[in-house]
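Researcher: Next entry in the queue.
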Amino acid sequence: MTGPKPSEARKTETQPAWQLLLHLPGLAFIGLYLLALAAVIVLGVVNGRHYPPLFLVFAACFMAASAGLLRLLRWAWALALAAVFLLAVYNLWLFASLHLGPALVQGLLNLVFFLYLVRPEVRERLR
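Model: Structure for this entry, 127 residues:
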């Protein structure tokens, strides 16, 4: 039998979300990363020079994914997974076309986040 023991299953069901999150520090880091990206986008839109107002939709999605990940919600995992994958593709495309070094770093970082999120032990802890 490879599944969790009944006592372990009951133990994880009764623990609050913040205690389960302590076992997955990567989720907390990814949530904070998405929140920081949302703040950068909002500042860029308010400043009026960096991003068009339509980018506020992305900021709202990043904030929702961040809040949901910190509460270990499955829909937030899917939203964060899509966000980091699309950000990885976009930044790697920027590097390939414009040869921007920071785009390569951010693209690889997003790829690492994507690979972390698809791990089975991460998906098992979500509700």
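Model: The first helix runs from residue 6 to 14.
Researcher: Noted, moving on.
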